[in-house]
Amino acid sequence: MDEHRGEMARWLDVLAAKGVLELVFVNRPWPIDLRLPTTLFSCASLTRLYLGLWRLPDTAAVPRRANFPKLRELGLCFNVMQDRDLAFMLERSPALEILVITANQTGLRLRLVSHSVRCVELGCAYLDDIVMVDAPRLERLFQWTTFGDLSEGNPNICQHSRIQIGHAPNLRVLGYLQPRENEMEITNTVVVAGTKDNIVPSVQVFAMEVPFGVRNAVKKVPGFLRCFPNIDTLHVQSEKCDEPSGKVNLKFWQEGGPIKCVLSMKKVFFYEFRGSRSEVAFLKFIAERARVLEKMVAGECLSSGDNVNAKLKPLTGAKWMNKACKLELFKSPYPEVASPVFCHELASDFSFPDPFDLGYYTESL
């Protein structure tokens, strides 16, 4: 592609002159870190732009007045970029509503400062920090399989990534957070009944991925849930553990102190249920405390030799707070999938209230 730079520049000039609205611009073949032509910034008519396998341009080389005044959706896929490059793209896109970052080639810190962005999707990305600094219109934040940057001492080890929520008063949908991989920090202070709390009361739909066979990861779950006191719908993906390191029982949840959001939960979806003691204890804790629970659905991926009824006995015999609600069990259609199932189209469809609910649990066992 490098030997065709002149042609690319002319081609982009033509697209700009014709007022192109949507563009997917991918660098092929190798090398996969070729510098993105700055001519692209002349396409001021763009409303949707996806860039793949490029090295974002040096911001000093971009014309000072160049911007994307109409750009609504930006996707950055497998690119080489630094923090300042991403900040520059956001600054030059004043109307941006949807930001997608997938599999960046280098570590990155996302500091979201935008008064227009409503949805952020992060997938298979190396992100040290995900910081919502000032995002008054942000409604949805999705992450799936994100990692901290690679360790300098050992390139095969990923550091934990930090998620910091500052000014994001309209954040309603959040997930899939990973207690084992993520560190949560809430910098926004809310006064509740005369007490100052660092919480995010706007979040109503919350999703997390939990390895229930890893005790230290499960112990972080209550802290995560307490950050979001008004969760209406909870989605939990049970992560498979090849090397379990301790489990928790019902006593852990009972003695850990109150978790306010459990009282207001109406729907709980549990995916890849394997019938472990830790999983059953978690669901039983919710069943015995959720006053307004309307639906509890579990997708099971048990082996053929497992006794489902025996594994579920502690839960079916629980004293459900809402006696009209019972567990609905269905066969998982994706038993071999290691990470949560995700739909990009639903994530950015603001008319769809719960983008984590893919509706494949209609046939109960």
> In DSSP terms, counting alpha (H) and pi (I) runs of 4 or more, how many helices?
9
Number of strands: 20
**Intertermini distance:** 54 Å
Strand content: 25-35%
Strand order of the largest sheet: 1-3-5-6-8-10-12-16-17-18-19-20
Percent range of helical residues: 10-25%
- Helix and strand composition category: alpha/beta
**Low-confidence parts:** 150-158
Give the quaternary arrangement of the chains: single chain
SSE string: HEEEEEHEEEEEEEEEEEHHEHHEHEHEH
**Overall pLDDT level:** 87
Radius of gyration: 23 Å
Description:
By secondary structure, the chain is α/β, with parallel strands linked by helices. Helix content is 18%, strand content 28%. The protein contains 9 helices and 20 strands. It has helices spanning 5-17, 83-91, 215-218, 221-226, 250-254, 260-264, 277-287, 308-316, 344-347, and strands at residues 22-26, 34-35, 48-52, 54-55, 73-77, 98-102, 108-113, 119-123, 127-134, 140-144, 161-167, 173-177, 182-186, 190-192, 195-197, 205-210, 233-238, 267-273, 295-300, 327-331. Strands 1-3-5-6-8-10-12-16-17-18-19-20 form a 12-stranded parallel beta sheet, with no helix packed on it. Strands 7-9-11-13 form a 4-stranded parallel beta sheet. A two-stranded parallel sheet has the order 2-4. Helix 8 (308-316) links the parallel strand 19 (295-300) and strand 20. Helix 7 (277-287) packs parallel to helix 8 (308-316). It is elongated. Mean pLDDT is 87; it is low at 150-158.
